[in-house]
Amino acid sequence: MPVYxxxxxxxxxxxxDVKALIAETGAAKMVESMGGxxxxxxxxxxxxxxxxxxxxxxxxxxxxxxxxxxxxxGLRTKTMRAFDGEQFQRILDxxx
Length: 96
Description:
The chain contains five helices and four strands; from the N terminus they run E-H-H-H-E-E-H-E-H. It has helices spanning 12-15, 18-24, 27-33, 59-73, 85-93; strands at 3-10, 37-43, 50-55, 75-82. It has a four-stranded antiparallel β-sheet with strand order 2-3-1-4.
């Protein structure tokens, strides 16, 4: 399945109640309920509050999961499609 990297930040409203978010965290279960698989996730210091790396069957499902996460957990996200070395080599092989 394609891999997606999502960087996220708390919304202003959510950061006011961040302890409740930590208590209710169910991001991996939500990803799985939408047909994906959470590979890893981390809390971050810096301009982003966290990162999740997950597999989804397609771009549409990944987008729906990001929107669901934004609504459920009070987040703003930036999501990117990730390619492993073999996939990137196939991309390079297509260059003229």
